From TrEMBL:
<dbReference type="InterPro" id="IPR003721">
    <property type="entry name" value="Pantoate_ligase"/>
</dbReference>
<feature type="binding site">
    <location>
        <position position="61"/>
    </location>
    <ligand>
        <name>(R)-pantoate</name>
    </ligand>
</feature>
<comment type="function">
    <text>Catalyzes the condensation of pantoate with beta-alanine in an ATP-dependent reaction via a pantoyl-adenylate intermediate.</text>
</comment>
<keyword id="KW-0547">Nucleotide-binding</keyword>
<feature type="active site" description="Proton donor">
    <location>
        <position position="37"/>
    </location>
</feature>
<comment type="similarity">
    <text>Belongs to the pantothenate synthetase family.</text>
</comment>
<dbReference type="Pfam" id="PF02569">
    <property type="entry name" value="Pantoate_ligase"/>
</dbReference>
<feature type="binding site">
    <location>
        <begin position="184"/>
        <end position="187"/>
    </location>
    <ligand>
        <name>ATP</name>
    </ligand>
</feature>
<feature type="binding site">
    <location>
        <begin position="147"/>
        <end position="150"/>
    </location>
    <ligand>
        <name>ATP</name>
    </ligand>
</feature>
<feature type="binding site">
    <location>
        <position position="176"/>
    </location>
    <ligand>
        <name>ATP</name>
    </ligand>
</feature>
<comment type="pathway">
    <text>Cofactor biosynthesis; (R)-pantothenate biosynthesis; (R)-pantothenate from (R)-pantoate and beta-alanine: step 1/1.</text>
</comment>
<keyword id="KW-0436">Ligase</keyword>
<keyword id="KW-0067">ATP-binding</keyword>
<dbReference type="GO" id="GO:0005524">
    <property type="term" value="F:ATP binding"/>
</dbReference>
<comment type="subunit">
    <text>Homodimer.</text>
</comment>
<dbReference type="GO" id="GO:0005829">
    <property type="term" value="C:cytosol"/>
</dbReference>
<dbReference type="GO" id="GO:0015940">
    <property type="term" value="P:pantothenate biosynthetic process"/>
</dbReference>
């Protein structure tokens, strides 16, 4: 596996691979890799000749300085995990390499980003779109691989690809979970043993809410009951729980036949912010 730290190195590698007729897959990450990330790398390795993984804790998508400071950084461990998964090139740039000067361009994804994560983390998706655009330009992938755990982020990236005419395929894989249902996340490593023990409740609440959606319980009631369950657990501080249209991400007040629904939740647990979602077809 090659390791690049500069944009010029990655660009040269990608251009040479494309010129040789190789299919390139890109797996963008912020590191502290877990099985969810490695699933994406293995999938890319199955369908692509070259697999580029990026490990970059992107400061422009953090609106909480403490979250940025405490985000796990395990570069050696990440590199060791990527090799057997099939990664052929690892891009690990510095902040100065990615942002030689502050970006002036600002992205606005309209209603897609005015709800949920976008509403509670101002500027977050501008940072996501900026760094993803840079990676697409540098790595020139034929396919980019993302996980469904960041459901709204996937919707934003899909819109980015459409609006800027990036010539690549977006491949999305289901959320990978621990045995007790907790969605795998790099932030899970920051949970204390006590917090980790109650963390699976988040997914359990989503499952119960999904069952109610299937029974036709009105969205407002589904939301109210789910938040009430979380409120009974003092360790949790819910930020939002939305019953939304799975395509537009807008909150719904009723159900339309054939329109998938997504249940999205964010909550703080022991100083760690967790998110999860469940799609109801």
């Amino acid at each position: 596996m090659l390791i690049f730290t500069t944009a010029a190195e990655l660009r040269t590698y990608a251009e040479q691979a494309r010129a040789a007729g190789r299919r390139l897959g890109l797996v963008p990450t912020m590191g502290a890799l877990h099985e969810g990330h490695l699933q994406l790398v293995r999938a890319a390795a199955q369908y692509c000749d070259e697999v580029i993984a990026s490990v970059f804790v992107n400061p422009t998508q953090f609106n909480n300085p403490d979250d940025l400071r405490l985000y796990p950084r395990l570069p050696e461990q990440d590199a060791a995990a990527l090799v057997p998964a099939g990664c052929t090139a690892l891009f690990m740039p510095s902040v100065a390499e990615v942002y030689p000067q502050p970006a002036i361009l600002r992205f606005d994804f309209g209603p897609l980003e005015r709800v949920m994560e976008g509403a509670h983390r101002p500027g977050h998706f501008n940072g996501v779109a900026t760094v993803v655009s840079k990676l697409f330009h540098l790595a020139r992938p034929h396919a980019a691989y993302f996980g469904q755990k960041d459901f709204q982020q996937v919707a934003i990236v899909r819109q980015l690809i459409t609006d800027l005419s990036f010539d690549l395929e977006l491949v999305v894989f289901p959320t990978v979970r621990e045995a007790d249902g907790l969605a795998m996340s790099s932030r899970n490593a920051r949970l204390s043993p006590a917090a980790r023990a109650v963390a699976p409740l988040l997914y359990q609440v989503l499952q119960q809410a999904a069952a109610q959606v299937r029974l036709g319980v009105l969205p407002a009631e589904v939301q109210q009951q789910a938040l009430a369950i979380l409120a009974q657990v003092p360790e949790f501080t819910p930020e939002y729980l939305e019953v939304a249209d799975a395509q537009s991400l807008q909150p719904i007040t009723s159900y339309d036949a054939g329109r998938p629904v997504v249940l999205c939740v964010a909550a703080h647990l022991g100083g760690v912010r967790l998110i999860d979602n469940v799609v109801v077809a």
